[in-house]
Automatic annotation (TrEMBL):
Membrane-related topology note: Multi-pass membrane protein
GO biological process: regulation of intracellular pH; sodium ion import across plasma membrane
Ranges where the Cation/H+ exchanger transmembrane domain occurs: 57-397
Transmembrane domains' residue ranges: 34-51, 56-75, 87-108, 120-145, 157-175, 187-205, 225-246, 267-294, 314-333, 345-364, 412-434
Taxonomic lineage: Eukaryota, Metazoa, Ecdysozoa, Arthropoda, Hexapoda
Full protein name: Cation/H+ exchanger transmembrane domain-containing protein
Highest taxon, organism lineage: Eukaryota
Compartments in which it is found: Cell membrane
PANTHER family associated with the record: SODIUM/HYDROGEN EXCHANGER, SODIUM_HYDROGEN EXCHANGER 7
Pfam families named among the record's database cross-references: Na_H_Exchanger (PF00999)
Keywords for this protein: Cell membrane, Ion transport, Membrane, Sodium, Sodium transport, Transmembrane, Transmembrane helix, Transport
Main location: membrane
InterPro entries: Cation/H_exchanger_CPA1, Cation/H_exchanger_TM
UniProt KW Transmembrane helix keyword: yes
Source organism: Nesidiocoris tenuis
Amino acid sequence: MGRGNATFGFWQLNNRSIFEVLSSKMDGGDETKLIVFCGYSVILTITFCLARTWQFLPRLSYLFAFLLSWFAGYVVRNWTPYNSDKLVESCFSSVELAMIIPILVFHYTLRIDYYTLGRILGPVVFVSCSLFAANVGILSIVMYSISELGSPYEPKLLHALILSMITATHAVNMLERVRGRVRQLQILLQGEILISLGLFCYLNNILLKFLDFNRVGIRTSAEAVLVYMVWHVLGIFPGLLAAYLFKQFVRRAYDDCAGQGVCCISCIIVIYCLCEILGICGSLSVLAFGVSLGTSKIKFNKRTARYYYNSDRALTFLASSIIFVYCGFYIGLTHSGYKYYQASYIFIVFATCMTTRVITFVLIHRMIGMLNQITWRHLTVGVQSASRGAILLAFSLNYIAKHKLHEGRQLLIDNVILVCYSYVFNIALLGPVLEAMGINDLTRPKIINMNWALSLVNICRSRAIESLQVDRVIADANWVVVDQSTILRHPYKHSKKRSIQASYKDFEEEFDAKGRIISCGNCGAKGGSPTV
């Protein structure tokens, strides 16, 4: 079938069904793409069944965008007259990534309690650096040992480095509901996100600069490496300077929501591009810009804060969707096939990531003990929370578009499947893990406080009704209806998480010596009232 003579119909191509054409096209060495296609369909089905909250819907849409773009790239490569190699060169450049990567990096610096993080910064830095170093070392060794004979070690080291960068924002958002009981774990995960991202941005450019990934015979000296490392450290100062200038602008444009948002996005993109031109890590400068803004006490009005929150969510969703579309279209356009052993290879890599995290937590448990209120149950959630997302794929695309790595495509495919694994095991299964660990359950102090508050509210309600009954104007009102319509139901009475009947007995024993127990005849709620 010639590429330029194809005739399309409803679910048909040249009087043959699309599925028949797919089956005939995938005979031979390229049949594994059909397996990958079916695998993604199974993953999407599983994740859709496991996702019971709206928070997973954006991730599900990312996977659908990747699947559709991959299919579009495959169709363009096989049934259109376009040259796929030239199309890849024209569609994928570092210019688009220079506008997307700063947005994704800046997103991870927002909505962090920097005051609480600063109080426990020492243990958080130690734990995060230990997890990052252990992940890089063990992963690189495992990937090098199970890869094909004769494959170089440098790409495995780079792959282990990028996989050590975690994005646990979904876990942080879910832990936000529990509030105080897992506050230290939430701060630990947020600090690990920042530190792992900063370490990756710093070490990534150094490895790309001085390691011979493309086998062109680069020779470097120790002095050059040292100078380049110091030069990259100076890359945080443009971000700090831009943050200071942005603070001055905010003070003079307090009520201009759109102006502040446009100025912020423009600043991070300009900083990133300028630092990349100067040979400095632009991602590190953007990270410094976001942390500097977060630690400073900038006063925003409510309208501006709401605008920032909504615009950040919209931009992050748009940037992540574009990254997944780029990945799918690029993989569909390229020609090389996918080998069978890669499926087991990627699963071993993912299992190694989880196992390394468990081992590291066990080895440094004494340092973690310095963080108050963190138990082994919380650390289990910490192991489950380490996910990978769009920023991992963005840097993987940057290896192809900017650095022209020979193994960039294979690294991108591996990272895409790892992200799919992460969406299933680290994100979709996080809710059941929280329920199994009992972190979402109602605690006894919380139930007792609610009982006490409910009893006081009922006392105030009954006294208000008694005082209104004395009024001559409304004395003949239907007070039965008033009593039924103003009653306050117990919010935990019909909770599925945990029965509160047992807590009533503890509540009665605790308040028996201090006061008397009030029991509501309508809802059955009990509360303590202090004696006069």
